[in-house]
């Protein structure tokens, strides 16, 4: 069964839930493969051309497979992340672009979706991850 959890944070003005905080909710011993399907952001603390990076990710047929540490580093280097769609699964063949979010959510064990810097929508089939998210971040 897929759990769908919305994370708004505790600040009414700004979203204060980070990708790192969400990742910290993964159960011990769970180490899925990860793919970025979408990223939109502004400003970079290091010399990275953000529009080119966004274009590469958007135009890669199955997204960009990266280590979790690399993904966190990319996100942390952006001054502002507007949108992010990150999927994870222990079966790398499931990490592909699907026709809809619903199909993505039902096929990948972990789907982390940031909407317009406003809230996170997390879909997961991992009950322990869902429980950790609710206990720590909701």
Describe the overall structure.
The chain has 138 residues and is α+β, with helices and mostly antiparallel strands. It has a domain at 36-118. It has five helices and six strands. The chain has a six-stranded antiparallel sheet with strand order 1-6-5-4-2-3, sandwiched between helices. The longest helix has 11 residues, at 127-137. It starts with a strand and ends with a helix. 27% of the residues are buried.
Largest sheet: 6 strands, antiparallel
What coarse outline follows from CA principal-axis ratios?
A: globular
Kindly, what is the distance between the CA atoms of the first and last residues, rounded to a whole number of angstroms?
A: 20 Å
The helix tally amounts to: 5
Can you write the helix and strand succession as a string?
A: EHEHEHEHEEH
- Class by alpha and beta content: alpha+beta
Which percent range describes the beta-strand content?
A: 25-35%
Radius of gyration: 14 Å
Number of beta-strand segments: 6
Question: Multimeric state of these chains?
Answer: single chain
Features:
138 residues; alpha+beta; 6-stranded antiparallel β-sheet; 5 helices; 31% helix; globular
Give a summary of the structure in a few sentences.
With 138 residues, the protein is of the alpha+beta class. It is 31% helix and 32% strand.
